[in-house]
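Bit of a strange request maybe. I'm writing a small parser for structure token strings and I need a real example to test against, not something I typed by hand. Could someone generate the tokens for this chain?
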Amino acid sequence: MKILLIIADGLGDRPSDQLGGRTPLEASNKPNIDYLAKNGMVGLIDPIAPGIIPGSDTSHLSYLGYDPNRYYTGRGPFEALGTGLSLEAGDIAFRANFATVDGRGMIVDRRAGRIREGTGHLARSLNMRIEDVEIFFKEGTEHRGALVLRGKDLSPQVSDNDPHKEGVEANSVVPTSRQGEKTARILNEFYAKSRDILSGHDVNRGRKEKGLNEANAILFRGGGMVPELPNFDRKYSVKGGFVAGVALVSGICRLAGLKQYKTEGATGSTDTNLKAKLTGAVDGLRESDFMLVNIKGTDIAGHDGDAVKKKEFIERIDKAIGEVLMDNLGNLVVAFTGDHSTPASLKEHSSDPVPILIHYNGSRKDGIGAFSETSVRNGTLRLKGMDLMNVLMSSANLAEKYGA
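Reply from user aminoacidic:
Good idea to test on real output. This should exercise your parser:
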């Protein structure tokens, strides 16, 4: 059987006043997801472990069967790989944002108005050399990007310059060990030079004339060295692929050796073409045995604190599932879950476990017809992220017996 793992980023939530005390899942009209839940197994999954707040990076590693305690060195390398940058041994990579600062250097918008146009031109202007270190910058989705340092005696043991809030200046980078002293010095100089370059860039002059927030600063965080992941296909003796519009997820999957299936309109935002994503995944399963599909919009709505928008996006996911999957279930194992919870009331990730469903012909049926955070708690499944691939492989009759 073939495996389709659909991960709605930040799917889990908490009761919202915007929705009359219901979660977006509880409030949404999602007949297709509910059908799969009723006719399959449901439950809850802790992406890492109970009480641990997952990042999208660590949870995706965990779901694919790579222990983040062993393989996670920082988010930056995955972001860089996902943008298409080629990393070499010893490179230090950071995830980055285009941001807006005022004349005093105070951050007024960490996402530069979620800029989309002109980011490639901005990024190319930031490739430079400081001392003996080559610096590469590559744009990602919307305001996101990746920053890579290549040179001798570099270390990821430095602080972030991103303060994770507005109304303050960017942090000065400091080493967290003696090995990070050179890296911190280079990064502080890069920030100063990049501000000068971006402030006078044609793209930003145009944005200013239109009354848009300028992308005149770079905030970076999550530095790390690229890890070496065991190849996914050899690890599970299957052929794996993925569909994703977000650089982070693309980077993790590429590093694991999964084949990327690109689809038109996969933006990694709320305007993504969901039908095209799922169609591309189903088409890819003609040659692959496992397919991961990442859908980012639920997480964006959660971070924006918009429970209504999140509910509506879940309904769009359900519609796409109805259009693409419901007549093509056949020999397909369908798993639907989130990589973590992003409650709209928090605007941030939480440690709340995430609902999960697994449906395939002949599966056990928990008979729970409303898929939500609370309704699934009486279902069959109670998993940690590292359990997921084992369960999916077993569901698809692809697992090997343990023991005689």
